[in-house]
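Supplementary Note 3. Input sequence used for the single-chain structure prediction.
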Amino acid sequence: MTATHTHAATRQHTVVDSPYGPLTLVAADGVLAGLYMTDQRHRPPEETFGDLDPRPFTETIRQLDAYFAGELREFDLPLHLDGTPFQRSVWAQLQLIPYGETRSYGELAELLGKPGASRAVGLANGKNPVGIIVPCHRVIGASGSLTGYGGGLDRKQRLLAFENGTQDDTLALF
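The predicted structure, written as discrete structure tokens, is reproduced below.
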């Protein structure tokens, strides 16, 4: 029996402002591993985020700023996504949904070759650790309804409206 050595990733975090409220960015060994909103479902405990250190996030912050300014439609960042193989396959599909478009949970299940798995796709979608950059907000119910969103339905609606160019700037910010 061979012993496997697993090293615990060195984690750092920082908090940045956004039009959708403060975003907590978390890195594992210098690679983006989390983007969490305030009051987000499945948000890990703060003590797991590591030391407060903005240095690993320079490029992430630059791309987020460009996205929120309407100048960037596709993120190009290395990601460290911790999850089951099925969750990671769902998150990979999310990254293929073009800016300004949506897919249903059922459509994603079909793309994964698991047509009966729309509920499992929804659960994996809800556990996406890197919101916005891995665009789980672009997944909707089969009827076109917004359904759930870990960051809250209001944020989901606002992100989709922003990407569709129909954002109402009179909405109060968080």
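The chain is about 30% helix and 15% strand. Residues 169-174 have pLDDT under 50 and may be disordered.
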